[in-house]
Structures are given as structure tokens and as C-alpha cells.
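Task: sequence design from structure.
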């Protein structure tokens, strides 16, 4: 059994300060693959460096809406540094990108422009995208449908079951994390029941999202095993079946080899 944490920030403390320990604890919990998304240029470069060192780690590059500098980036955001990074460092996805209307002092026009530019980059590079969204699922859907050739995952999906069919119709996968472990997270758990088995991914968003038993900032990729267990119980799957389905889904979306070592390359 091998689990895949499709969204974890191994470049950020406290995970980055004990990376070998984090990976060892993940391996002990059956987690052997990791997707590390960037959220700006520096974190994207750091993710690519990890991916070069550890075969089990794959990198995504992109500009997260929370890192858009409203003073300097208006609607003329240039993807060129990310384009060059993609050419030189071979990330497997564009992300973490998206819309976040829960932020203070943000411009919806700027967020939309930056998102469209990065979706265009993904289309040119034939890469999937990792989408972040808070309080903006309807605007997000309208933008994503402009790019029918781009696939991806809505990470930590919180839009509820009423909207899920729209994103599924666009071909998107749905990422479930610590929320599905919480008995009172009704919308997330209802959504997890109706997403087709070939569109579900597991994630932690470690260290930023906790679970029913793990506090935020204390989460690690090992905790994706609890997500898998909760999903298995909801869907009445075995844990092995859940691991196989979700890891296969991630490999398909990100066009990955079937297996590789968690150990760093020598």
C-alpha cells in the first residue's frame, strides 16, 4: 500500500527543518509520494530543488493569489520567470494558483488576470494545474471553463456538493484533506461521497491545515493516512483500495511513473 500526499509544503518550516524525519515518518505511515506546490518564485524554485534531490517528491510552480503584490502587479503579470523555470527544472504542474476572496485588500480583477495568465501557461506547457479557491467558486468555474484543454485538481475543495458537478464536468480532480476527518464537516464529507472514484486525490496541505486530531502547524504528510482512513470509512472501501485508487489517480493526472524511491538520489 502506498499513499500519495498531493499537496504538502515541504519547503516551509517546520517541515523543512526536519525533512528527513518528516519523510521517514511518512514512510512509516505508508506515504511514499509527495507533491510540493510553489506559491511564489522562491518557493517554486525550492520545490524544484527538492524534486531534483528526492525522486518521491514532485514539484509544481506558480503564484498563489495571497502572494500577488497588489502594489506592483496589476493586470500585467508576466509568467516568463515561471516559463523559464519550467523549461529548466521540469515541474509536473502549475500551482498553487487560483482565486481567494477571503483575503483582505485584494483586487478581483488582478486575481483573475494572474490566474488566466497562469492557465494559459499551463495550456502551452501541457501541464495540469493545482487550484486554490476560497469564497470564489462561481468566479473560478467561469474562468476555468475558458480553458477546456487544461486539467487539474481543486485542492482542499470547500465548495460543497451543489457545485461539484460543474468542476467534474470540466475534467477536474478533487483534493480532500483534513476536513474529511472531521465529523462535523458536513459539506466536505457529503462531497466526498459523490465524487467519482477516479477523480479523488488525498492531501494534507501540511503544515497549514490540520485534521480532527492534529492541530494546524503540526500536520505532516504522514497524516494523509488518516485522510485515507476517513475516506475509506465514508465510501465503504478498504484502506488498500483507497490507497490504490487515489495514488493511481494522482499518477494519471500528473503523468508520473508508477513507482520510485523515497530516498534522495545519490
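Answer:
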Amino acid at each position: 500500500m502506498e499513499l500519495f500526499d498531493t499537496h504538502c509544503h515541504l519547503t516551509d518550516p517546520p517541515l523543512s527543518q526536519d525533512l528527513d524525519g518528516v519523510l521517514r515518518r511518512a514512510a512509516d505511515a505508508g506515504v511514499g509520494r509527495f507533491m510540493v506546490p510553489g506559491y511564489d518564485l522562491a518557493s517554486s524554485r525550492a520545490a524544484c530543488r527538492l524534486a531534483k534531490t528526492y525522486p518521491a517528491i514532485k514539484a509544481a510552480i506558480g503564484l498563489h493569489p495571497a502572494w500577488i503584490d497588489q502594489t506592483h502587479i496589476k493586470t500585467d503579470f508576466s509568467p516568463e520567470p515561471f516559463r523559464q523555470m519550467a523549461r529548466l527544472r521540469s515541474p509536473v504542474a502549475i500551482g498553487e494558483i487560483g482565486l481567494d476572496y477571503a483575503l483582505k485588500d485584494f483586487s478581483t480583477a488582478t486575481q483573475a488576470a494572474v490566474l488566466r495568465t497562469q492557465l494559459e501557461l499551463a495550456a502551452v506547457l501541457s501541464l495540469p494545474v493545482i487550484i486554490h479557491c476560497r469564497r470564489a467558486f462561481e468566479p473560478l468555474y467561469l474562468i476555468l471553463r475558458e480553458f477546456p484543454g487544461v486539467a487539474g485538481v481543486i485542492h482542499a475543495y470547500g465548495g460543497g456538493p451543489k457545485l461539484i458537478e460543474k468542476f467534474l464536468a470540466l475534467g477536474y480532480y478533487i483534493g480532500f484533506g483534513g476536513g474529511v476527518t472531521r465529523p462535523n464537516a458536513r459539506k466536505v464529507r457529503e462531497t466526498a461521497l459523490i465524487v467519482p472514484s477516479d477523480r479523488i486525490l488525498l492531501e494534507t496541505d501540511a503544515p497549514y491545515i490540520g485534521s480532527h486530531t492534529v492541530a494546524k502547524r503540526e500536520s505532516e504528510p504522514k497524516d494523509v493516512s488518516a485522510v485515507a482512513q476517513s475516506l475509506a470509512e465514508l465510501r465503504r472501501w478498504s484502506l488498500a483500495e483507497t490507497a490504490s485508487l487515489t495514488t493511481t489517480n494522482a499518477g494519471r493526472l500528473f503523468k508520473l511513473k508508477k513507482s520510485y524511491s523515497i530516498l534522495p538520489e545519490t
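The CA atoms of residues 14 and 203 lie 18 Å apart.
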